[in-house]
Amino acid sequence: MGLVTTKEMFEKSMKEHFAVGAFNVNNMEIIQAILDAAKEEKSPVIIQASSSAIKYARVNYLMKMIEAGVEEAGVPVAVHLDHGPDFETCKMCIDAGFTSVMIDGSKYDFEENIEITKKVVDYAHERGVVVEAELGKLAGVEDDVNVEASDAMYTDPDQAKEFVERTGCDSLAIAIGTSHGAYKFKGEAKLRFDILQKIKEKLPNTPIVLHGASTVIPELVETCNKYGGNIPGAKGVPDEMLHEASEKGVSKINVDTDLRLAMTAEIRKVLAEEPSVFDPRKYLTPAREKIKETVKHKMRDVFGSSNKA
């Protein structure tokens, strides 16, 4: 099975009320872990890379590694650009073989966001590639995304309907209370499911995307801190809320921070417990396994995508 777009997996997710996990990658071990998890769980999956990840790993390296893994996985796999900052980056990824791109125009005003999104949609659709757009702003810091809490805003359902109709985007990332990075909430976690419901009523056939949706798994944070890390007070979106979102109409849920924590926790543990180790395989192998465990948990227990391939 070769690479696919997100079209069919999202259609199935809306019909059967589950979400497809979109997992950020930076290197071979992360790619292998995600695809191994998808194969074992028989789950569709989205491999996504930010523009920062592409600068780090180089787009051709990423694509070749993903293509090699897809041959083994035997499940639907889409390759997606996460938070494309401009038309040029989206074009580069489309030309490189990505099957899906996100243009993030949320930093612009409504009309400018529509204009840049429509430009990307026109280019992508001519080449059989689907487009995710964003309306509303998520607070937090992740890669090149940095939004102050005071500048964050919820997505307006009426604007969402107009935006999709005018741009022709294939899916829409909305802001209902999640945020980027490891420090998502200062108080109790809360998502605006009422806004999600209104958006789904107005856009029943448009796949909805949730960004900034890592759980910030406490056990992983604890392991990092136990072995020399300094990540105090990190707090994410509880699994129960993400599961509810998947049942209430969210088709794609993004995960990045949890994978970083899983990898770092295991590497720190090995290097602390076995200070004589200097072979990268000795610490990257358990790191890869921990990422796989984390992804399998998301697919099986949170998103409900297991056995949906």
Descriptors for this entry?
alpha/beta, 309 residues
Question: What can you tell me about this protein's structure?
Answer:
With 309 residues, the protein is of the alpha/beta class. Helix content is 49%, strand content 17%. It is built from twelve helices and eleven strands. It has helices spanning 7-16, 28-41, 51-57, 59-73, 87-96, 110-125, 157-167, 193-202, 218-226, 239-247, 257-273, 280-303, and strands at 20-24, 45-50, 77-84, 100-103, 130-135, 139-142, 145-147, 171-174, 179-180, 208-210, 250-255. Strands 1-2-3-4-5-8-10-11 form an eight-stranded parallel β-barrel, surrounded by ten helices. Strands 7-6-9 form a three-stranded mixed sheet, with no helix packed on it.
Mean pLDDT: 92
Helix share bin: 40-55%
- Strand content is 15-25%
Query: How many strand elements?
Result: 11
Largest sheet: 8 strands, parallel, barrel
Biggest sheet, spatial arrangement of strands = 1-2-3-4-5-8-10-11
Question: Uncertain runs with pLDDT below 50, 5 residues or more?
Answer: 146-151
Q: How many helical stretches?
A: 12
Question: Which structural category do the helix and sheet elements fall into?
Answer: alpha/beta
Shape: globular
Write down the secondary-structure element order. HEHEHHEHEHEEEHEEHEHHEHH
Radius of gyration: 18 Å
Span from first to last CA?
12 Å
Summarize the structure.
This protein is α/β, with parallel strands linked by helices and 309 residues long. The chain is built from twelve helices and eleven strands.
